[in-house]
Amino acid sequence: IAGIIIFDFQYFVWHMTHHKVRFLYRHIHAVHHRYNSPFVYVTQYLHPWELVVVGVLTTTNTWFFNSHPLTVWSYMLLNIVVSVEAHIGFDFPFLLHNLDPTGIIGGSPKHDMHHQKPLTNFQPFFNHFDKMFGSFCPPMSAGGKKSKALLDYEKKAKDCKKNM
């Protein structure tokens, strides 16, 4: 669990940096964003540098805790499942974010919104860092219906742009 939380923060910082620094976005992370409507193969559709860095972050976190090999294997499997789920392009009722009563797990609707609004929703698994740092954007409901939270977010963003 600690490895997942640490990776979630590491990737949040790495991901946000690659969106905010134009050079990094254009030359590295933009490869992943060629698709604005993710599907499962987009999970690993990455620039080689991004694939190496994310692979190193994912792999080394369990080393710091001297984890048992079965724990490492379970951690890696969970990382893969969550990454694929975030890019699956569907919102099935049995997916992790729909089973979580707290709403802390992001899931595919949140990540779909990130591909539509690239300066939002940087966190891969959860929502708390996005909410703490103001990068959270509420996801659309199934069928592309905008929730009241999303409509309020878009109105607030539009007002901010107008006032600049």
Automatic annotation (TrEMBL):
Its main location: membrane. One of its GO terms (cellular component) is membrane. It is found in: Membrane. Coiled coil: none annotated. Keywords: Membrane, Transmembrane, Transmembrane helix. It holds the Pfam family FA_hydroxylase. One of its GO terms (biological process) is lipid biosynthetic process. One of its GO terms (molecular function) is oxidoreductase activity. InterPro entries: Fatty_acid_hydroxylase, Sterol_Desaturase_Related. Residues 2-135 form the Fatty acid hydroxylase domain. This is Fatty acid hydroxylase domain-containing protein. The lineage of its organism: Eukaryota, Metazoa, Spiralia, Lophotrochozoa, Mollusca. The gene is ORF42380.
